[in-house]
Design goal:
Layout lengths: L1 H22 L6 E12 L2 E13 L4 E3 L7 H18 L6 E8 L13 H13 L7 E3 L2 E2 L5 E2 L4 H10 L4 E4 L3 H14 L3 E4 L3 H8 L5 H4 L23 H22 L7 H11 L1 H9 L3 H23 L4 H13 L11 H18 L4 H4 L8 H20 L14 H16 L6 H15 L3 H20 L5 H7 L11 H15 L3 H28 L21 H31 L4
Parallel strand pairs: 3-4, 5-8, 8-9
Antiparallel strand pairs: 1-2, 2-4, 6-7
Length: 595
């Protein structure tokens, strides 16, 4: 009887413990809300509210619809939950999470990663019990490790935040453009913009009292230009591109010095132009070490930023005039005929002209005529970008001396590559904006019978999408492993080799994801250009057996790698014949020797 009593008591105890575990779970039902700035229409920003409901569960996430939510936003929710749990030490596996988006009336679809920081902060607030300051608003992507990333639509988001009485915006500024815009916006709108790098940085500020004293240390946004990192040599130089890069660097240096001398000592502009000038020598070092594309790309962006600063400083902005200036350059651009010694360079030049036209084709000047000056910043940047591409295209282009290339022979090949590229991209649920843009431009080039340009853009589209897919769920260490042996890769064609030097530089500076993206583009471009060369050989091209230009052995007017290989085959054949003849002679002498 006594044993039965203890058994009964033990069962009751076990059941009590089980139910108490449910009743007193570490996950308590909680509700939270946070406002997020968003671009709700062309040049117009607004605030949307995210609602969070947490209840006991097993770590599942539920998203309220409508509106439908894209994959990018779904991934952002997972990253923000992981980052907040890691930051606060909260075990989120005992809870379920329901997230809804309200205040997005009229939106048929919500997507984008820039609410990641806001979601991470709200999760961290709910997990820790610390309340966020209502005067703070945030925007930025958030990685699983808690690193804050850049966003788009800074101007619209700042203006929307200011209209709704927010005093502080936390975000990740990226580059000179954001630096200049942020300083201009803070001067005009009563809002403090603070640059944050991590979730913990943002949480510390967002949970503080934000007194004037505590904000004093954020009184100024620091210049974002960092000195260019110099790495060891890349031995595979392309002389023509080296010379072009030096010309770009010298031109920038002259323009930047002239503008610097006109600025007042206490201006934001003078500080950042000084940082640009201080880094010029590093670009020359990169060229000397074989990273001409990296240096040219750096200076291209600095030149674009310089023009942006100058134009805003000169104000007011006349978008109609700037578009006319860009179109004048693009429409009066002289393209040389594609020949066996210049076709890659001319193709690269044509591609950039197309990219430039794409930058300005959808700018509706009337939309900005009566808008505030800050609303003109983004279209202005695109117009200046188009102008700089026009300038670079002129440097790339040159008149060849080889035989003319008949691009019409590539029509069938381009149709095949178009289908191949699109079929690959359609295998995945969504394509990046860059991928879609490259496909659109490639289709237009093919329609206009610019077949080599189409192949160039299809290669870009395929490469960008492949890198996005391959690295989607990979850690930096895993991506690094995927790049094993990258320094030993060599291509037959000029542009793949040029891009490869950039991929190697990014690899050596530990930007593995960007390095892999550039490598994917170079790989696919090499494949498509090889196929184009084969097609031209098969269908005949003025008697030439090749149209390739290999920068490893030649300058801009050089012959092809295959010509070198053919010569080598002849030399080897002659050598073999000589060896055989000598062997026959020796054998003959042996049999005729008298002892």
């Amino acid at each position: 009887m006594k044993n039965r009593f203890f058994k009964f008591y033990f069962v009751i105890l076990i059941i009590s413990v089980f139910f108490s575990g449910i009743i007193y779970s570490s996950c308590q039902p909680t509700h939270g809300e946070i406002e997020v700035p968003a671009v709700v229409s062309e040049s117009n920003g607004g605030l949307v509210t995210l609602e969070f409901d947490i209840e006991p569960g097993k770590g599942d996430i539920y998203i309220q619809i409508p509106p439908p939510v894209g994959i990018s936003t779904q991934n952002s929710i997972e990253n923000s939950l992981d980052a907040a749990a890691s930051f606060t030490g909260f075990d989120y596996s005992e809870c379920d999470y329901r997230i809804g988006i309200i205040g997005a009336s009229g939106s048929r679809y919500i997507d984008g990663p820039s609410a990641g920081l806001a979601m991470g902060l709200e999760f961290a607030s709910l997990f820790s019990g610390k309340k966020l300051n209502d005067n703070v608003i945030v925007t930025g992507t958030l990685s699983q490790s808690g690193k804050v990333g850049k966003i788009g639509g800074l101007i619209e988001k700042v203006m929307a935040s200011s209209r709704n009485g927010k005093k502080v915006l936390l975000t990740k500024l990226s580059g000179t453009k954001d630096y200049i815009i942020a300083n201009n916006l803070m001067d005009k709108y009563d809002i403090k913009i603070i640059n944050v790098d991590t979730l913990s940085d943002a949480f510390y500020i967002a949970t503080s009292n934000l007194s004037n004293e505590s904000l004093s240390k954020y009184s100024k946004i620091e210049s974002i230009i960092e000195p260019t990192e110099i790495v060891d040599d890349y031995e595979y130089h392309i002389p023509r591109f080296d010379n072009m890069s030096y010309e770009i660097v010298d031109m920038f240096n002259s323009e930047a010095e002239n503008y610097y001398n006109q600025l007042s000592d206490d201006s934001h502009e003078k500080e950042i132009v000084k940082d640009m000038l201080d880094d010029v020598d590093n670009q020359k070092k990169l060229i000397n070490r074989g990273y001409s594309y990296t240096a040219a790309n750096n200076i291209f962006n600095r030149l674009l930023d310089l023009k942006f600063i100058e134009t805003i400083d000169a104000g007011p902005i006349n978008l109609s005039q700037k578009i006319s200036e860009a179109k004048e350059c693009l429409n009066n651009f002289e393209l040389y005929e594609k020949r066996t010694d210049n076709w890659e360079w001319i193709t690269g030049s044509e591609v950039r002209i197309d990219w430039a036209k794409n930058k300005i084709k959808d700018i509706d000047v009337n939309l900005y005529e009566n808008n505030v000056e800050e609303a003109k910043f983004d279209p202005l940047y695109n117009i200046l970008n188009a102008e700089e591409w026009c300038y670079v295209s002129k440097l790339i282009s040159f008149k060849g001396k080889g035989q003319l290339i008949d691009e019409s022979k590539l029509s069938d090949l381009v149709s095949v590559k178009s289908q191949e590229t699109k079929q690959y991209i359609l295998r995945f649920p969504e394509a990046s904006t860059d991928t879609v843009n490259y496909i659109t431009m490639a289709d237009e080039a093919a329609k206009n019978k610019h077949y080599l340009v189409a192949l160039y853009d299809y290669a870009f589209a395929y490469g960008v999408q492949k890198s996005y897919v391959d690295t989607f769920d990979k850690s930096p260490i895993q991506v690094k492993a995927m790049l094993n042996g990258i320094e030993d890769v060599r291509y037959n064609h000029t542009w793949p080799n040029i891009y490869h030097s950039q991929a190697v530089y990014l690899y050596k500076t530990k930007d593995y994801e960007s390095s892999y993206r550039i490598k994917c583009i170079a790989d696919k471009m090499e494949e498509y250009f090889d196929d184009a060369e084969h097609e031209l050989m098969e269908k005949g091209n003025g008697g030439n057996k090749t149209v390739n230009v290999n920068p490893k052995y030649h300058n801009s007017s050089s012959g092809s790698c295959r010509e070198e290989i053919n010569k080598m085959k002849i030399y080897i054949t002659i050598l073999i014949v000589i060896i055989v003849l000598e062997f026959v002679l020796i054998v003959s002498m042996m049999f005729n020797t008298k002892i």
